[in-house]
Amino acid sequence: LGDVPEHWEIWPIRRVVAMVTSGSRGWAEFYSDEGDLFLQSGNLGRSMSLNLAFVQKVNLRESSEGIRTLVQRGDTLICITGALTGNVALVDLDLPPAYVNQHVALVRPDPRKVYPRFLAYALHSNIGKIQFKNAEYGGTKQGLGLNDVKSIIVPLPSNDEQLGIVRELDFTLADLSATIERASSSIDLLSEYRTRLVADVVTGKLDVRGVELPRLDEDDEVEDSDITDEADREGLDYGEEAVEEAE
């Protein structure tokens, strides 16, 4: 972890959480167009938030598996398989009934020991990412086991310090998020304008017959002789290769 303040403690996740679990296999039979949310690795965004733009739904009969994997506000979700291994998302809102699949670890912090948002920030930072990367097992399957997740260590200041750190991060990152959102919106608008412009020109809705193309600068001009010489050289090279192959 590097240097940390002397009065902080360093604990593995298993010491500061109430539960670490993941979903079971075989839920495909419960897939439905309507029902409860079924959170998968693709729903864990890269900004520590849930991406619910598209979410699978399940019509699940009441069972112990459903109770065990039911997501609550304050839970931290971690992708444990595939290319997204180590992605972290904090459940910071009240969701309708939602469950996790086998590719997602559900970590439920003990609020007496760690502030949920602080734990999510720690795991989302290089403190967590480097440990997740080191804990991945190779071979044909890449990912993390639940014991790997439980063994990740995090620095723990007092609860008051945790809350202060979270508030500072929230305040600072809010400005960055707003800037990113504005830039993304501008990119989307420019992309939409480009697509519409191309369509209008191709379909003739926009008449460009009178448009004059800008003149090339002298440095950009290409002599016809240069093009011819290059073409001749390519043709000569091709001819020599053909003769050699024939021989």
Q: Can you walk me through this structure?
A:
It is a single chain. With 247 residues, this protein is α+β, with helices and mostly antiparallel strands. The chain has six helices and ten strands.
Task: Give the secondary structure arrangement, pairings included.
Blueprint: E1 9-12, E2 17-22, E3 31-32, E4 36-39, E5 56-58, H1 64-68, E6 76-79, E7 88-90, E8 98-100, E9 104-109, H2 116-124, H3 126-135, H4 146-151, E10 153-156, H5 159-202, H6 224-246
Parallel strand pairs: 4-8
Antiparallel strand pairs: 1-10, 2-9, 3-5, 4-5, 6-7, 6-9
Quick tags:
single chain, about 250 residues, alpha+beta, four-stranded antiparallel sheet, four-stranded mixed sheet, 6 helices, extended
Largest sheet: 4 strands, antiparallel
Strand segment tally: 10
Determine the N-to-C terminus distance: 67 Å
The percent of residues in helical segments reads: 25-40%
Question: What Rg is obtained from the alpha carbons, in whole angstroms?
Answer: 28 Å
Low-confidence stretches: 234-243
Q: How much β-strand is present in the residues? A: 15-25%
Number of helices: 6
Overall geometric form:
extended
**Helix-and-strand structural type:** alpha+beta
| Helix-strand topology string | EEEEEHEEEEHHHEHH
